[in-house]
Design brief:
inorganic pyrophosphatase (n-terminal core), OB fold (Dihydrolipoamide Acetyltransferase, E2P), alpha/beta, Diaminopimelate Epimerase, Chain A, domain 1, 27 helices, single chain, elongated, 5 domains
Length: about 775
């Protein structure tokens, strides 16, 4: 289950400061509290944060190596040197190449551009340098977004007679290149060390051109968002200024990739443009993305953009396929260690990083995916917030051939015979340095919303949102909600709660829970949008979590009844034995255990389960954390778990338990309500007669919804739901479309219903 974590809890003194800042700036205490918690502790700090832009840009000459690099480039221009730029194939590298190539042209140098394809590997290589020297014979090579880990390759280039300038932003290795090096992580007077590669290139362009580099800030903004660096400090200023530039003077290449998108935000850059740039590199054609960002031929832009769109579509399909394979392996092997490591022969190396990021998010722990190339495994690592994968890999460097990156992402090469050693060492490091709470799926919430319209307007001033400046989330407590699909068969829901219109994308899976009387916590964000000149305020639901309380009596009975459609089960243990086993199992591992119960009263008999998160109807998280699941929906997928324990005897096992070890308690029935059902023909016929005369009163797509819609037509909820289920199996009625349909004139026997036979057999036991 996802954990709700409050972004801030202030002391009385801090609360006083927040109130003081809010009054000074004329903003709500909610907004002032968010800013205070994020490091803006004075009104002046907050004012600066709320008005990001070029006015806050730092002098590039505060950065070590900048003055020397500019002097060398001036010499290169004066002496007509041949200058080559060496970049990287991702959106950061392509953006950096676009910035520096355009800046050099404006400065008076026509550079040679080299971007390796993904098959050549990350960073400089001897083979790539040989190619550059064969084709161009440069006097000077300038790297962008790479080079800091290429001390040997830099020395090789120098031996061929070229000067080298390295501009990079990645973590510093033990051995630095022996050349002019610009990296904000070097110890210098530059106060901000989180620039991306294109951000560093933009600073070099600014050092060369002054104000003349301002037109290149849109590339820097795109790369900053794409590279997942914190959107704080100067990064925030770069993105804000870049978005203004795109809005006012959209570059033809950007417009071609944006299509009909009207509103350009940081999210637009992250989810529309960046994936298309990255897709080209991942599909082995990084030059197409580079050409789009560097061409002066306007007529070439549309076909290049279309090529990138096609690459992105192919990338999406390939990633989905790779993810399916990886998830299947996880479910077979279990995701019960603090790190997920997988390798395969047939995976595309260009996609393993994307899928690793998806797995890390879903399972809430670092994920490393590798592709086998002979005796070597080449892979990508992605981590979760709070776990520094670069430091973890550094601690295991004896098992690694090569690695580089930063806290949240890294490239890793390891010999196949060292794979298991690395996996074990990484797991040990994470167990030692991080707690279970560090790996929990977290939702950082501010609290309950206040004055929706005012807060929403103020929060728009906190944009651009991203890493380090997350979009604030709010909570709302609710019981039964009127939630409806936005259109028939849509997976998306609309609802109204707490005076706010809410949209819940993909929320259909939670429809039963939302409509039940169980207390729940809605986690949502504010969104302001313009349509045809009008402003609209909506809340977007990010999660729905059980809050405790309520019965959900009808829904739970429905699940118990429908579970009879599963396969028969055999009890194999007792309450005492199971309680003892559960206690020991929890001590060993925080993952891989799912305790299932069809009767909430059963839980009181298991002291071993105290403190475990409780889900209702379905799992709220896919990370296989130890959990209690109450009244699971039929067909609920528990295949990711290695141990599934039924605390009471289910009617049958109607769940997807995969290859898990299953234990069933034989002392608690969990099905007592089924024993009271009448299977007498006259009782069922009386329900059918009522349905025929009052059909217009019965609405809903499930039996529980139908029962609530008409107050069961005077029957008990158990009788009514049982009758509906039997009649639908017999083809006498249908609830498709949410309306009761009765098929008249059809004759059949009750015994033709599998559910009727199952209940009859249960009562005869």
């Amino acid at each position: 289950m996802k954990k709700l974590v409050h972004e801030f809890e202030f002391s009385p003194a801090e609360q006083a400061e927040v109130r003081k800042c809010a009054a000074s700036l004329g903003i709500t205490q909610t907004t002032a509290g968010i800013l205070y918690a994020r490091g803006m502790v004075t009104a002046d700090d907050m004012r600066t944060f709320l008005h990001p832009g070029a006015q806050h840009f730092l002098s590039p000459f505060l950065m070590k190596g900048m003055k020397e690099a500019v002097e060398l480039l001036r010499r290169a221009k004066a002496e007509d040197w041949r200058v080559a730029l060496f970049g990287d194939y991702d959106a950061d590298g392509i953006g950096a190449l676009a910035i520096l190539s355009r800046a050099l042209k404006k400065f008076g140098i026509e550079p040679y551009l080299y971007v390796p394809e993904r098959s050549e590997g990350y960073g400089m290589s001897i083979a790539a340098l040989d190619k550059i020297f064969d084709e161009f014979m440069p006097d000077l090579i300038v790297t962008v977004d790479c080079g800091i880990s290429n001390a040997e390759e830099v020395r090789y280039a120098q031996e061929q007679g070229a000067y080298v300038v390295v501009t990079d932003h990645h973590e510093l290795p033990d051995v630095l290149p022996d050349c002019i090096t610009i990296n904000p992580k070097l110890k210098d007077e530059y106060p901000y060390d989180n620039l991306c590669g294109a951000g560093v290139a933009f600073k070099l362009a600014t050092a060369l051109l002054g104000e003349g580099a301002s037109e290149l800030v849109d590339f820097a903004a795109l790369s900053t968002v794409a590279d997942s660096v914190p959107l704080l400090g100067e990064n925030r200023d770069i993105v804000a200024e870049g978005l203004r530039r795109i809005e006012a003077h959209p570059r033809p290449a950007f417009s071609a990739l944006l299509g009909k998108t009207n509103e350009v935000t940081a999210q637009t850059l992250a989810f529309t443009i960046a994936p298309r740039i990255n897709a080209a590199g991942r599909m082995g054609d990084a030059h197409a993305a580079l050409a789009l960002f560097t061409t002066e031929n306007v007529e070439a832009i549309a076909p290049l953009a279309e090529k990138l769109n096609l690459y992105n579509t192919e990338r999406q399909h390939a990633c989905d396929e790779l993810y399916t394979q990886a998830a299947s392996s996880i479910h077979k092997e279990g995701a019960f260690e603090p790190v997920v490591m997988l390798a395969a022969d047939n995976w595309n190396a260009g996609f393993v990083g994307i899928v690793a990021a998806r797995i890390a998010e879903e399972f809430s722990r670092p994920a490393l995916l590798f592709v086998r190339r002979g005796d070597m495994l080449r892979g990508s690592a992605r981590s979760v917030e709070g776990v520094n994968i670069f430091e973890a890999l550094k601690s295991c460097s004896q098992y690694i051939e090569e690695f580089g990156g930063h806290a949240q992402a890294a490239g890793v090469n390891v010999r196949a015979d060292q794979f298991e050693n690395l996996k074990r060492a990484l797991g040990d490091y994470i167990k030692t340095h991080y707690t279970r709470e560090d790996l929990a799926s977290k939702l950082y919430v501010v609290g309950e919303g206040e004055d929706h319209n005012r807060v929403a307007h103020e929060l728009s001033m906190l944009e651009p949102f991203g890493i380090g400046n997350r979009r604030p989330l709010f909570t709302m407590e609710a019981a039964m909600l009127e939630a409806n699909p936005v259109k028939p068969l849509s997976p998306h829901l609309s609802m109204h709660a707490g005076g706010l219109d809410l949209m819940y994308f993909g929320g259909a899976k939670d429809l039963k829970f939302l409509r039940s009387d169980l207390k729940k916590t809605l986690v949502y964000e504010y969104n302001l949008s313009m349509f045809r000149g009008r402003e609209y305020l909506k809340g977007f639901v990010r999660a729905v979590l059980p809050a405790g309380g309520g019965e959900a009596d009808v829904e739970m009975f429905e699940n118990t009844l429908l579970a009879l459609r599963g396969k028969p089960v055999q009890a194999d243990t007792t309450t005492a034995e199971l309680d003892s086993w559960l206690s020991e199992r929890r001590k060993k591992c925080a993952y891989g255990l799912c305790a299932v119960s069809y009767d909430v009263t059963t839980l009181a008999q298991f002291s071993s389960l105290l403190g475990l998160p409780v889900d209702v109807f379905r799992l709220s998280s896919g990370n296989c954390e130890n959990v209690v699941l109450l009244s699971p929906d039929p067909g609920c997928d528990l295949s990711g778990y290695c141990d599934i324990v039924f605390l009471d005897v289910p009617p049958a096992n109607a769940l997807n338990t995969g290859t898990a070890r299953v234990q069933i308690n034989g002392e608690c029935s969990g099905r007592s309500r089924l024993f009271g059902l009448s299977v007498a023909r006259e009782d069922l016929l009386s329900v059918f007669a009522a349905l025929r005369t009052q059909a217009e009163r019965v609405t809903g797509e499930t039996y529980a919804q139908a029962a609530k819609s008409c107050d069961c037509l005077g029957f008990s909820s158990e009788e009514f739901i049982f009758a509906l289920a039997v009649f639908e199996e017999l083809g006498l009625i249908s609830l498709k479309g949410g309306r009761l349909q009765i098929y008249r004139g059809k004759k059949t026997e009750l015994s033709a219903s599998p559910l009727y036979r199952a209940v009859t057999a249960l009562k005869e036991e």
